[in-house]
Amino acid sequence: MGKESQTVTSVTGGWGSALKPYFEKESLAAFFVGISSGFPYAMIGATLTTRLAQDGIDKKTVTAFTLSFLVYNLKIFWAWIVDGVRLPVLGRLGQRVSWLIFSGLMVIASVINLALVDPAASIGATVLAAILVGVAGATFDIVIDAYRIETLKLYQLGVGSGMSQYGWRIGSAGAGALALVLADRIGWQAAYMACAAFALPAMLTGLVMGEPARHVVSNEKRALAEIWQSVAGPFVEFFQRAGAWLVLLFILVHKIGDTLANLTFRLLFDDLGYTNDEIAIYDVGVGFWAYLIGIFIGGVAFARLGLKRSVIIALVLMAFSNLSFAGLAASGHSNWAMAGAIGFENAASGFGGVVLVAYFSALCDLRFTGAQYALISAGASIVGRFLTGTTAGALIETLGYVNFYLLTTLAAVPGIALFWLMSRNGLVDSAMGSAGARD
């Protein structure tokens, strides 16, 4: 398998060897920080979409709110601060742990602020509050991703990414379900405030586990030249690798269809007349378990099949999962159709999330983990989020839901073709970073 045998490789032992890493402390740490990573996304994603739709906000305005996710794509511009700037007082806990605590407190404060705004009274204030959650959540993600990558050993990258996705889904689905259930009973404000507690698992994990073993200590940045090197260094190193530009192109295009579809599901459910309880049962409940199953299969597949084959399978599954929502839109209000569509989509997303996160983690240089993973994760969704925020609502109104989801399926084809070409030409291996190389 060429360089892949020296980097992220398949496991040749029995199934026990593939399952053992799930129960190691590093993988468990990835699980708990993943919980906290998932919930801010839910607060400004599906949950806010439902809240706005129930307040009578029109579709174009609702889908425009997905532009608040673009803040996550801008995190590359301040990721170097998380990598290299030592926080006063908290810095004694270590670079990663101190930033986990600080950014966690930022998320809690921003979610409470979003809880206090009234979308019906002031869309502007709601936009600002959503953006602030995005800024805090993106900063939290920078730290969490770096902490996870630097905590996991090389052989744990696949299952550790799976555990992180387990956590992400629990945090996202748990916060989303809790918000829906509480909103019907005590109102949206109290629901959002209760969900702020989901920031605590990552903060506590950092305090218990301490600094990650593979963290490369950077000098504190003071001089202007050092600051510039901190900003430019991670990008210069990445783009000096053979095939780096094609890898970046793949990162940009591989998830367009998936992002376009995912950020519009709640609009479909609302138009089909599903209640909050039905959404909680089928979207959150069935989706939750399907996602967990997909994550488990993805983690084992990554270990057994290796990086390249598992990524190709993931891309194909994620593309076809959008077809299930075209079927749901055509069938109308059907609990069975909703369960099937949600189940397939979440299983495919769980599988894909594991193998793609493992691949993107392996692309990082351990000297610049936070900044480089911020670049990669930001690039992975920026095109889809921009298209969703600017065109999705209009496309749905023009084409209808069925044709819209067929279009999102076609949008996934370029990513599949590009990764296949990269694999054939050895560019997947040549662009690998030190996080994916054996010590």
Quick one: CATH class?
Mainly Alpha
Just name the CATH architecture. Up-down Bundle
Task: Please identify the structural class as seen in this structure.
Answer: mainly alpha
The N- and C-terminal alpha carbons lie at a distance of: 19 Å
**Looking at the structure, what is the overall shape?**
globular
* Poorly predicted regions: 1-7
* Biggest sheet character: none
C-alpha Rg (nearest Å):
21 Å
**CATH topology (fold) name:** Growth Hormone, Chain: A
SSE order and pairing:
Blueprint: H1 15-19, H2 25-44, H3 46-54, H4 59-64, H5 70-73, H6 79-84, H7 95-116, H8 123-151, H9 157-186, H10 188-195, H11 200-209, H12 224-239, H13 244-253, H14 256-262, H15 265-271, H16 276-305, H17 307-331, H18 335-362, H19 369-410, H20 413-424, H21 427-430
Helix pairs in contact: 2-3, 2-8, 2-9, 2-11, 3-15, 7-8, 7-10, 7-11, 8-19, 9-10, 9-16, 9-18, 12-19, 13-19, 13-20, 14-19, 16-17, 16-18, 17-18, 17-19, 17-20
Walkthrough of the structure:
With 439 residues, this protein is mainly α. The protein has one domain: MFS general substrate transporter like domains (Growth Hormone, Chain: A, Up-down Bundle). It is 75% helix and 0% strand. It contains 21 helices and no strands. The protein is globular, with a radius of gyration of 21 Å.
